Amino acid sequence: MIKKKFKITGMHCSSCAITIDMDLEDLDGVKMSKTSYAKAETEIEFDPEKVTDSKVLETIKKSGYEASIP
């Protein structure tokens, strides 16, 4: 398992952060997602053999937000 942070843009409130966490935690291989509206970032703990950075970015985009690796 590794931990990685991603910058998020497009969030309007803390409910946006909850949506991102729920969508990321649905991915097989993601142990934990902790998104902060105030910091505009998410920290994810995941298995890099099951989840790639591009899959994380794609999932966040499907949730309606933009993301990048700082």
UniProtKB/TrEMBL annotation:
GO terms for molecular function: metal ion binding. Residues 2-68 form the HMA domain. It comes from the Bacteria. SUPFAM superfamilies: HMA, heavy metal-associated domain. Keywords: Metal-binding. It holds the Pfam family HMA. The keyword Lipid metabolism does not apply. This is Heavy metal translocating P-type ATPase. It comes from Candidatus Daviesbacteria bacterium GW2011_GWC2_40_12. The lineage of its organism: Bacteria, Candidatus Daviesiibacteriota.
